[in-house]
DNA sequence: TATGAATGAGTGTTCATTCAT
DNA sequence: TATGAATGAACACTCATTCAT
């Protein structure tokens, strides 16, 4: 009897060590040898499960994206129904400890750069970008006009990414100040101007 | 004695084709062969002028950074003396056509990722980050308390980077909406709240 | 699982073609390409088994040294127990056909030169030198005073190397006259002076 | 008026730094760049005066050989007319401080190895070998039969080279014990056996 | 299902050589 | 006479991929 779920275990394990390897040496230096050695498997296993290196990287990206959206979904469910709370939930999820750590952040950065030249990755990025935008837009729309909501959503999305990026680059992301800055932005957008 | 002054010409030329190559195939696929072929020179010229590939990439990054700060300096000089105008000038420079184009943007993205694992590049990034922050901070300070100015500066810096990043990823940066969003942020920060 | 035991076969094969290549073109011109081509393998195999080129060369040197000491051990066992016979056995082994042939001699010469600037090789040389000296010294000591034995051992060791060197340089080593000269030296050292 | 003897000065200077460079990094790592840089000249100067790198190396070898024979000639002239003194003079010259030092010894070693595969160098070696042999042979012949003289000359030549080689490899040549060993050999050869 | 030996194209880098000045 | 910028072939080495087991 073949081990049940062996496949899933392997997939998860390999994606995990891929993240760790990218964290430690960077995507450019992450060779199949270094990844599989850390997983204590042979290099051949990658082509077996993922076809080739790109397949592994794409699966890793999908994994990271799914984790982000699971976190967002979780936070949104737990949030109060008002727009402000919903928006805050999205921000909160983005600065979760699950999202703000070495392996995930460095992988994001690497994939941002990589996606400029690989169609598959770019596609995944676009889906993610649009999804976040429409999510934010929908919530802002409940209190703002459509154009205003779109502007607010664009701004907030950019602010989240920017705070995220600067946190990653600084090496020591401030997990308190960053979401605070985004919350403030939400408040400013929602609050009626004089 | 061979041609004098060739040095500067060569340096500029090689940095230029490096940017173009990164634009077209990405940093990962930008080999010395592809760069020098585009420059119609030999590969040996790189070690002659830059020591090695890393030297070329570092020089390229320095070039991009210098260009950004020249643009900022130029805009600031032309701006009115009031804080809002100065801040707008910084934003404007960041969304200059010189900064918002394929070669420069893709290079920035690539170096953001690369700088996570190369000390030299990280150092350059940090200098740039701090410089932008203190620039913004100084201007906000003229109308806000110190803590408020710091928060505003952090937020605006993140927003600029975020808008920039999303523009790069989308492939078609909106050079009108992006600065507008940053201008609005400035206004919100400077305007007295109820 | 791929063929088992290939490792030892490959190692021996690669060391062998390394000797042949050094024989034909010299150490300076012995590139990995020329070596592996002769072995009908790929260049990558060297890094696979020896790490890098230096690893291959070091392994080759170790192989040559081991062969020499195996020959010496063999001859000594077959020799009569008296010092003169033992000393002759050492000389004999050094001028064995296994030691006196193009590949081995040219490799020795090359490594002598190379060992001046590579710590690993120098270490191997020193071990070999000391080993030969103490071997000779022990045998001379059975018939001479300690200081005399040391002088005799030094002289014989130098004579062996010298005969060996001149044989290599001449291109046509005289495998009869050379050991004869060393035998005479042994006799002169052991024979009581007037 | 062109500088007189500029040519000779350059030649000597370049040969000198070649020896120093081989001493410090070895023949394999002695590039034209490293040699000419030490001489504070351009690389082009080599092709100007020596044609190419091989020309420089050959000239260096000739220089070393000439120095050796000048030393031998000097010592022989100063020696008493008897064979033993003449033979001792040759030995003495070989262990002169001019011959026993890093640059010269490492260069000799390197050229021994190199001469196995370069016709020009091998030719120079052969001339040197034959010259030393006939020199020794002529002196031994005055007291020994022709065959005995030939054997003695071969042995002494080998002993000299061997002592020399072992001195070079050990890194700290014993400039007293080495010639002493050769003197003893001369005495043994010349002294009438019982 | 899993291995890892073997490949070989591709990489950055070195360096002797050339040549316009 | 002398320079050093420029070349480009050659090099050691890397690494994704393949495949017999």
Word description of this protein:
4 copies of one chain form a homotetramer. The first copy, chain A, has 194 residues and is mainly alpha-helical. Chain A has one domain (6-190): Tetracycline Repressor, domain 2 (Orthogonal Bundle), CATH 1.10.357. Helices cover 76% and strands 0% of the residues of chain A. Chain A contains 9 helices and no strands. Chain A has helices spanning 6-25, 32-38, 44-50, 53-78, 83-94, 102-114, 119-141, 146-170, 177-190. In chain A, helix 5 packs antiparallel against helix 9 (177-190). The longest helix of chain A has 26 residues, at 53-78. The first copy, chain A, is elongated. The mean pLDDT of chain A is 93. Chains in contact: A-B, C-D. The interface between A and B is large, with 41 and 42 residues. Chain C binds a DNA duplex (21 and 21 nucleotides) through helix 1 and helix 3.
User: Which geometry of chain A do the CA atoms define?
Assistant: elongated
Rg of chain A over CA atoms, rounded to whole Å, is: 19 Å
Query: Helix share of residues of chain A?
Result: over 70%
Largest sheet of chain A: none
